[in-house]
Specification:
single chain, 328 residues, binds 6-O-phosphono-beta-D-fructofuranose
């Protein structure tokens, strides 16, 4: 155990995700268990620059494991992108006696953490928190399981009205660069078509496929569209195109938006967050740094942050094949 670490800071950064509070709770409680101080940092890196800190103890994180969002809040910080801003943040940490950092966030947050370590040799550990699940090196990021369950529940509700009116619905979901939410929730909700940025099968193919669905007796259809999909310019243009080329369908659009970022985390996300928080604190105390806590199969792994931010997770081709078969 590293004798030098006596006070661990914890922050959340980037887009919030269900499970972040469970991770905060785990970091704080693990520090308390190991008699290490824990400094909560509000509003991400901007709060670090401003010294927006509070000492947390085991009771500070009561009743948050079941809550979406992050009690530490998150913020984007242009100032932290500058050497002067990072220097201010480092000075604040030193002044507060903080000597290691747990960053709960996504690729952008980890990039900042790595830069901070390079400039100040300050120990950092990352916990992957983003609903996109697009971080390399881990099978799951916090919030993804909750988000796909939120989407499946929403699509189940939309399907009720779609089938009542023989309508076709385009449902847009989040996932800026990667279509994992759309693909998994699409299979889970039985969507007739799943449009993701990793594929672009074209507008004509989409119309042909929907025509086949209709001719095979499907009276209503759900097309789930990842926000990064490039089949059309946007989901509303897809609607217009299908209405024009497939007048048999009455078409509507539903954009799920930021509701996918909220909600009480699933048990899976709560357990994963609790495990990752313990691992992050213990790894720092072992003298480790610049790593992200990941999970592969059911085991936690330590992934170099440089590797985690080197690209984006690719969708599973086997699941794409399953989704193709399911839309028969
Ligand atoms: O990265 C998570 C995410 O929810 C993306 O899926 C989405 O495109 C983006 O954040 C939205 O960012 P903001 O909350 O800044 O609008």
């Amino acid at each position: 155990m590293s004798q030098s670490i006596k006070n661990i800071g914890v922050l959340t950064s980037g887009g919030d995700a269900p499970g972040m509070n469970a991770a905060i709770r785990s970091v704080v409680r693990t520090c308390a268990y190991l008699n290490i101080k824990c400094t909560a940092i509000y509003r991400g890196y901007q709060g670090m620059i401003e010294g927006d800190f509070e000492i947390f103890n085991a009771r500070s994180v009561n009743n948050i494991i079941n809550k979406g969002g992050t009690i530490l809040q998150s913020a984007r910080s242009e100032e932290f992108r500058t050497p002067e801003g990072r220097k201010k943040a480092h000075d604040q940490l030193i002044k507060a006696g903080v000597d290691a950092l747990v960053v709960i966030g996504g690729n952008g947050s980890f990039t900042g953490a790595l830069k901070f370590n390079e400039e100040f040799n300050f120990p950092v550990m990352g916990i992957p928190g983003t609903i996109d699940n697009d971080i390399l090196g881990t099978s799951y990021t916090l919030g993804f399981d909750t988000a796909i369950n939120t989407v499946v529940d929403a699509i189940d509700k939309i399907r009720d009205t779609a089938s009542s009116h023989n309508r076709l619905f385009f449902v847009e979901v989040m996932g800026r660069d990667v279509g994992l939410i759309a693909l998994n929730a699409g299979v889970g909700a039985g969507a007739e078509e799943i449009l993701i940025p990793e594929q672009n099968l074209g507008l004509e193919r989409l119309v042909e496929s929907l025509k086949r669905s209709k001719n095979s007796g499907k009276s209503s259809s759900i097309v789930i569209v990842a926000e990064g999909d490039k089949t059309g310019n946007n989901v509303f243009e897809l609607k217009d195109y299908v209405e024009k080329n497939l007048p048999i369908y009455d078409v509507r659009v539903s954009v799920l938006g930021h509701m996918q970022r909220g909600g009480n985390p699933t048990c899976f996300d709560r357990v994963l967050a609790s495990r990752m928080g313990v691992k992050a604190v213990e790894s720092l105390l072992e003298g480790r740094s610049n790593e992200m806590i990941g999970i592969r199969d059911t085991s936690l792994v330590l992934v170099p942050i440089a590797e985690a931010i080197s690209g984006l997770t690719q969708v599973d081709q086997e699941l794409i094949r399953v989704s193709d078969i399911m839309t028969t």
